[in-house]
Amino acid sequence: MMNKLAIIFIFCITFNTIQSITQSLNGNDWFATNQDKSIRVLARVPGSIFTDLIRNNVLKEDPYYGSNDFNYKWVSYANWTFDKIFNVDENIIDKKGVYLICHGLDTISAIYLNDVFIGNTDNMFVRYKFDIKPHLRIGQNMIRISFESAVTYAQRTHDRYIRDNYIVPPGQSSPFVQRGELHANYIRKMQSSFSWDWGPSFPTQGIWKNIEIQSIDSAIIRDIVVNTIPQPNDKWLLNTTIHYESIYYTQFEGLLQISIYNTVILRSRVQLMPSADGNAVLNLEIPVNESLVIHKWYPNGMGAQMLYDMRVIFTTTEETVEKTIRIGFRTIELIQDPIKPRGLTFYFKVNGLPLYAKGSNWIPAHVFQESLSTDYIRDLLQSTREANMNMLRVWGGGVYESDEFYQIADELGILIWHDFMFACALYPVDSQFLDSVNTEVTQQIRRLQHHSSIALWAGNNENEAAIAQYWWPEIMFKSETYKRDYIKLYVELIREIVLREDNSRPYLTSSPSNGLETIKRNWLSSDPQSNVYGDVHFYYYQPQAWDWKQYPSAKFASEFGFQSFPSLKSLSKVVNTSDLTFPLSAAIVERQHHTNGNNEITNLIDKNMRLPVSGGIDRLDDFIYLSQIAQAMALKTETEFYRRNRDINPLSGEGFTMGALYWQLNDIWPA
């Protein structure tokens, strides 16, 4: 870790106040063209090719309607190019450093500026930066970003591994019922965009986040990492790291000013030594002024959600830059204490107080992320607060959510159990893949670390369980190889990044896992679903789901649930009226992407109620209603069991359940 910089306070100093310049390239004036140039349409950025084709009436029906998840596959199989003509003035070009900043490109792309190749991208979750000063002109310019089909890229990469005699499971065993694409684990992209058991397959292409030109004369503040550390007498210390991006390759200096709630807590001249790529890091320990009365941040139901603006201003002789974040003062711990006769507790403490985690799991709220509005996100998160939840688990098959998502969670007191974006698969560990993941995880932690709502980082969703339970036949023949690769990715790489970048919250290698016990077992437990350690994911449709004795006496249930059908009103928007019958029509059956899902729903009803007789839309409506009653009662029974299961079994060590997060909060696919 870098040595702490000495702080030299200054009472009078004069600097320029010229600002860096940012020119957005967002807008409705892009064009999207397919590979053979038979389609060329106006495009919107941020966006994706699907929403552009819908807006231009090339795709004439709702992608969710009928079999359009299958009918529109041609869009994902094609390669698409996005281009735009834009103007810049001399104020931008005259700056010492001029960069193209791509906050999110989905996914495999080559970028050209004025027909000059600028660079490639291969990770949806990475912010890319390219030096474009030599290629930018005063006046008119043209940017072109050519994307390769994610499906084609994933297949091509898989085939290369096969030629090298190395299969990264699940191989060819993705369930046919999902009607999706194979080999999502070979590409750093929203894994569920290739399909999941709860949703459709729409592997998008496009510029899904902001894209801009940034012009600077010295440095910008990219990220601020803050750990709030309580001190005696209700005081606080801010363990702060500021990440700069600069044009310099030698030492430079400037005036740093930091304020909390409009009160200056530090004003100092600092010296920075950039690395070879121009990045510089400043580590500070800042006591909060005694004159500032700080109120702690608490999760929903435990207290108020007090947030404070932290403003950082950095001024050099060339320019002034600033960045403001909102922070809460709180501590969070994951308590794993020994239990007799065996096992460990597994619960959170916030500000020293035990927390029973009540909540749900969050999946991507739209298959086309650019279609999400801040109002819609707020509505979903507000609903969790009003339902008296205090935690959501951001599931590892989706995306790192928008800044607005975490800001709203901070405001509402919704803690976030945060997976990294790896789910239900094993992953490559070649140097190119690991380098990309290194950048991804480092950037995302630095972007998100300051949010009070984030309670925990988890390396993946269910990948430890996949190895332990031999989900795929390949594991039986190369188990030691896959175990070694697993440790290389989630322990030797991601865990080390978390320890380096964010020591303010716990890290688990997987969910479910045995927590600390997993470490003792060399990071892979024989039973990651143990009732005496860590967290569990529990799904079992065969027994009587309304009987609480069927459920595991676990320490923390981070995923559990049952399916039901959506309302007839929702289903009628995506299925022809003639197909709204019972028994279920083929059109309804094909929308069920969970293997044996409809039989499980029927069994859940049949255990306690009478199934409707054959008939038309009225009988289907009866079946839907019964499926929802069966689901509601099963979830009620299971949740109430977890809520009251607070005692420890003196014979087994089971019990003392301190968390229940059902699957899932939000739904995007009427099925």
TrEMBL record:
Keyword terms, alphabetized: Glycoprotein, Glycosidase, Hydrolase, Lysosome, Signal
Keyword Glycoprotein: yes
One function term, GO molecular function aspect: beta-mannosidase activity
Organism per entry: Medioppia subpectinata
Pfam families given in the database record: Glyco_hydro_2_N2 (PF22666)
GO BP: glycoprotein catabolic process
All residue ranges annotated as the Beta-mannosidase-like galactose-binding domain in the record: 30-209
Reaction(s) this enzyme catalyzes, per UniProt: Hydrolysis of terminal, non-reducing beta-D-mannose residues in beta-D-mannosides
Protein name: beta-mannosidase
Family: Belongs to the glycosyl hydrolase 2 family.
GO-annotated cellular components: lysosome
Keyword flag DNA damage: no
EC number, as in UniProt: 3.2.1.25
Main location: other
InterPro entries: Beta-gal/glucu_dom_sf, Beta-mannosidase-like_N2, Beta-mannosidase_GH2, Galactose-bd-like_sf, GH, Ig-like_fold
SUPFAM superfamilies: (Trans)glycosidases, beta-Galactosidase/glucuronidase domain, Galactose-binding domain-like
Highest taxon, organism lineage: Eukaryota
Signal peptide range in chain numbering: 1-20
Gene3D superfamilies: Galactose-binding domain-like, Glycosidases, Immunoglobulins
Subcellular location: Lysosome
